[in-house]
Amino acid sequence: MSGKLIICPTPIGNLGDMPQRALDALSSADVVCAEDTRVTGKLLAAFGIEKRLERLDEAMIGSRAEGVVARVLAGEIIAYCSDAGMPGVSDPGLRLVRACREAGAPVEVLPGPTATATAYVASGCTNPRFYFGGFFPRKAGDQKAALDAVRTLDAALIFYESPNRVAATLDVLAKAFPLREAAVCRELTKLHEEVVRATLPALAAEFAARAAGPGIKGEIVLVIDGPNEAEGQAAQESAEDAARTRAQQLKGEGLRNKDIAKTLAAEFGLPRNVAYDIALEA
């Protein structure tokens, strides 16, 4: 029998969501590699599966991937699980798959639970596209860079966040996108599942109050709507205000209206006719 690496998704909270194909793979594999053997061990025990477990978290994959590939090429069937959901989606697994692909070792990825898609559909967002950014950055500079990169993207924005940081993150998002709606999806598929949808400023206020009071628990996915008409209008007005100040500066330097308009259009992304009107007003 030829070997292969089998990527096995697991439930994100409800054992009833365990895929049958993943159960079959875990039962028939020669060994199960796991992000955390304690977590996966409990999962296997819940379904009556007895299998040898080996720890293979993100920190270990770099040094052990080559050995796993060699074992697959030698005929071993290795199943891989992260703690919950689809391995490789903000979880260990991608580098292991890449190592197998580069070596020509067979890989089978089984479809199954993922918090990203579940939250996207549950959020109430109607944009047909989404961008998944993984866990929201912790440092202010990284946060700004991440949001600037997707500010004009016509898609919902999805981030994972911890309950201890979600209030602070919502405050950052509310300041960056004050006119957008979003959803906080908490404890998806679990008994206390909750989806709270509102404007970002309202969500920031709500979860700041929770953090200061009873606290916030559970895994959290944030889904932020894409750009809307109100946001576009506000951005246009802001650009025009800045362009008026710049036009006065350029006129003071002796530039002609035609040249001022050309500069404004280039610097502020304004339509030529709007830029020329502003140049005339300066």
Q: How many separate domains make up the residues?
A: 3
Mean pLDDT equals 93
Overall structural class, as computed from helix and strand content, comes to: alpha/beta
**CA(first)-CA(last) distance:** 79 Å
Radius of gyration: 25 Å
Main sheet: which strands, in order across?
3-2-4-1-5
Looking at the structure, the CATH topology of the largest domain is: Methyltransferase, Cobalt-precorrin-4 Transmethylase, Domain 2
In the CATH scheme, the class of the largest domain would be Alpha Beta
Helix content estimate? 40-55%
CATH superfamily of the largest domain: Tetrapyrrole methylase, C-terminal domain
| Low-pLDDT regions | none
What gross morphology would you assign?
elongated
| Number of DSSP E strands | 10
Family: Belongs to the methyltransferase superfamily. RsmI family.
Domain Tetrapyrrole methylase: 4-203
GO molecular function: rRNA (cytosine-2'-O-)-methyltransferase activity
Subcellular location: Cytoplasm
Summarize the structure.
This protein is α/β, with parallel strands linked by helices.
What does this structure look like?
It is a single chain. It is elongated, with a radius of gyration of 25 Å. The chain has 282 residues and is α/β, with parallel strands linked by helices. 48% of the residues lie in helices and 17% in strands. It starts with a strand and ends with a helix. The strands form 2 sheets. It has a 5-stranded parallel β-sheet, with helices on both faces. It has a 5-stranded mixed β-sheet with strand order 6-7-10-8-9, sandwiched between helices. α2 (37-46) links the parallel β2 and β3 (53-55). It has helices at 20-28, 37-46, 58-73, 94-103, 115-122, 140-150, 166-176, 200-212, 229-252, 257-268, 272-281, and strands at 4-7, 31-34, 53-55, 77-81, 107-109, 130-135, 156-161, 181-186, 194-199, 220-224. It folds into 3 domains: 4-109, Tetrapyrrole methylase, N-terminal domain (Cobalt-precorrin-4 Transmethylase, domain 1), CATH 3.40.1010; 115-226, 2-Layer Sandwich (Methyltransferase, Cobalt-precorrin-4 Transmethylase, Domain 2); 230-281. The longest helix is centred in the last third of the chain and has 24 residues, at 229-252. The protein is built from 11 helices and 10 strands. The model has no long low-confidence stretch (mean pLDDT 93).
